[in-house]
Amino acid sequence: MEKENKKTFLNELHKLIYRDNKFYKVWRFLTSGMFHFVKNVWYFRKELYEYQKWDWLYQISLLRKGLELHSDYLTEHGHDDDKIKFKKINKIDRVVYILKCHENDTFIELAEMELGYEYKHDFCELGNNKLSYLEKEQNAAIYKKSLEIEDILWCEFLEIIDGQDLSSVRSELEWERKFDGSGIKGWID
């Protein structure tokens, strides 16, 4: 029995040494690495097509797409208890919504819905100002509210990504009650 253990240990050690070989690395790339590369290019095709290294919105779109794919994976194949899994999925979906708001710059629309009146556009021709004083005040209020909403959503995004402090939790049952699904480190399945 001891000989078998030594033999299997040596076989596993040989496999580890073999995996460091350049021929194995090339073979592995051609058999599985290329497939994963093409699959990821297909998943992120729209984001990669539009990507510009000078603009931060494109990094946000890559993060959003990755989180959408992860949320779909957790929904179909998640191993956690359903209660925990759906808490994670809800937080991931909330982060995706916040990132979409930043991508599409929908804060004016959110402020309009909250305040109850629309932003009036002033298309001036040769200095003719067609907006009344009240409309200018409403536009200023909408713009100010949109900046507040943007700040609130950024703070919420950072809180969800950071997660909650569960260091004082002593039992698994207490952890399940207190866990709200936030924390990007806990989204791994």
Structure description:
The protein has 189 residues and is an all-alpha fold. It folds into 2 domains: 1-43; 53-187, no CATH class. The chain is built from 8 helices and no strands. Helix 5 runs antiparallel to helix 7 (133-162) and helix 6 (107-115) packs across helix 7. The longest helix is centred in the C-terminal third of the chain and has 30 residues, at 133-162. The radius of gyration is 26 Å and the shape is flat. The two termini are 36 Å apart. The model has no long low-confidence stretch (mean pLDDT 86).
Structural domain tally: 2
Largest sheet, strands/sense/barrel: none
Give the tally of β-strands. Answer: 0
> Average pLDDT across residues?
86
Summarize the amount of helix as a percent range.
Answer: over 70%
Quickly count the helices: 8
Q: Estimate the global geometry from the Cα principal axes.
A: flat
Short description:
By secondary structure, this protein is mostly helical. The protein has 8 helices and no strands. Helices cover 72% and strands 0% of the residues.
Topology:
Elements: H1 2-19, H2 22-43, H3 45-50, H4 56-77, H5 82-104, H6 107-115, H7 133-162, H8 172-178
List keywords for this structure.
189 residues; 8 helices; mainly alpha
